[in-house]
Amino acid sequence: METTIFYIISAIILVFSVLTVTTTKILRAAVYLLFTLVATAAFYFMMEYNFLAAVQLTVYAGGIVVLIIFSILLTHQINLDLKKINSIKKITSGLVSLFGFILIGNIIYTHTFKATSSVIADTSVNEIGRTLLNYGDGGYILPFEVISVLLLAAMIGAIIIAKKK
Amino acid sequence: MDITNFLIMKQELLLTLITLFILVSEIFVSDKRRIIPIAIVLFGIHTLFGFLYNSYGSIFGGMYQNSELVNLMKNILNLGVFIVLLQSSTWLLKEENENKISEFFILTFSTLIGMNFMISSGDFLMFYLGLELATIPMAALVAYNTYDKKSSESGLKLIMSAAFSSAVMLFGISLIYGQFGTLYFSELLSADMTSPLLILAFLMFISGLSFKISLVPFHFWTADVYEGAPTNVTSYLSVISKGAAVFIFNILLFTVFRNIVDVWSDVLYVLAILTMTIGNLFAIRQTNIKRFLAFSSVAQAGFILLGLLGTNELGMATVIYFILIYIFSNLAAFGVVSSIENNSGKLNIEDYNGLYHTNPNMSLLMMLSLFSLAGIPPLAGFFGKFFLFTAAAQNGYYWLIFIAVINATISLYYYLIVVKAMFINKNDSPIEKISNNWYMKTSYIICLIGLIVIGFYSDIFEYINQISIGI
Amino acid sequence: MHSEGLILFFLAGIVMVGMGVLLSSLLSPKKQNDVKEEAFECGIPTEGPSWLQFKVGYYLFAILFLIFDVETVFIFPWATVMKEMGMVAFIEILIFFVILGLGLIYAWKKDALKWE
Q: Would strands B64-66 and B57-59 be described as parallel, antiparallel, or unpaired?
């Protein structure tokens, strides 16, 4: 049963990812991207990574797609269709992608992954919080604090670019 | 955890404090122009502190590590950033930038914090975070001239290509994690790295990092971004950003990936030939001085790979030594270019005709820096290149060195075109005499000393070579 | 995973939405003409595209929202273990807050939060 759901979700992700890059209307691409991101969240729920799934929904589906749509609406040419790509380019890029897919797929498929003996990681919010704030071995306090600097710099950069004064 | 442990990461801590201090002064100081000297002096103190009170080790469970070599890399970057800051004062004091003076410092320091964390990282997570911190504010810096469409365009180009390269790199990292279940460098050292999957992961990783160093064929963003960005940001991008990427590349190849040295030396062999040759061939055709320097910096990156092909401590030391020299040479050239652009707005090589008659000092400095980039003795650049070639010769890459020597000769040709323009070509309306402020003059003097002294003062190379052995 | 519940949920969703669309299209009377097909706008015939360019202010608000959205993501795990970890956690989050708080003050000072 889980396998079936897995394939359904994968199909949704694949279909909408392809639609995202093939549609000629840019706003539609953003909406298709939204579906892809929501379906990815479904994956996380399936693996019971509830926190990550919630993050995926709030930040990606809720935040980033809104931002993308806003930035599309900022431009002049929202209603224009994107240029159709000529067929030679389509064929060559298709072949390159196919080659890459076969290569990577083949290597991953033939690799024998070692099964880990350790217990499945605890992904409850409590445990994430504990690891995030731990400063000893296996703790993530340093990235946690560096992220605040990253967010600050991103915020200042965005304000500088957007404010034309 | 002992409080003295924080001394290990004092560079990052101090820099963060300086950044926050400038942010606070931006909020409370009304005359923003006063922030320029404050920021430069604070950063100068920070640069000096980099050489003092050092302690080494790893903290946060091995996520952050500092050694004498890593600290030296940070000091080299600090020195370069200090020169960039001195050179950017003219541009920042222009009228159109009056509302965003301190932001330049905040964003620059943020990227530098990112680079420091990247070089000091002990696992791929910190590495990636540092890389992003070094890239995202950089896009804002490139798009800094909001009144200039080209600047915005290059900001977009940078962020797009950076996002793409990060995605490829992350895929590589995820494949590494999938195989070994760890991201820590120290644990990966003992991992069995023979599977094809690992080589695939490594290739993806190396392509991602090659974007940052702009190796051919991952260089396509370089010229456009360098041309569109404000000149001082271009110099920062081409020297500091590239230097930091080369440093971490250096460290990773010699630690985490040292077991697959056969694989990566083959890859670097091809990349080196492509990068040198294509960088050079495109540099000849350029008429815009910034695009010209962009392709010249692509070609220089190809020479750097020669040092890495030494595949031992000596190779590592030559690369660090070369970056040190490259910082002085390139920053001297970019300093002159930015000074001319800010005073006359001229950016074409033709405009440099007859520069010697009006600005003899700047022309001489430009000539010295170009000669150093070309590797003409007795300037520092010659020693840098010579050592790189020696490192590659150790492993018997004679054909590669032969190609590199041909490329060095070609590069001499196009560097001489600029020198000829400045000294020999006649011009009815040459660029007028430019009077630089003392920030700019200081930066010129530092570059000049660096260009001449580093080549002769052999202790520097001895020192680098000695501390590279431990890694 | 309780798959029966999930299937039931999916089916119920499909039936409820699908039946609504299907029934209304079957039962509703259909009389179409050109005037009815047009978009209604105060009775005046519409002209030009319906898209209009947004102000840049929307973008600024969206990106500031996003940054603080990400901040919330990191605060949430902290909140669940705050009591347990005590002072250390408090200091750690304080640093986080101060750095981002300065960013907020900066945005305020730069009039990025002002609607012009």
A: antiparallel
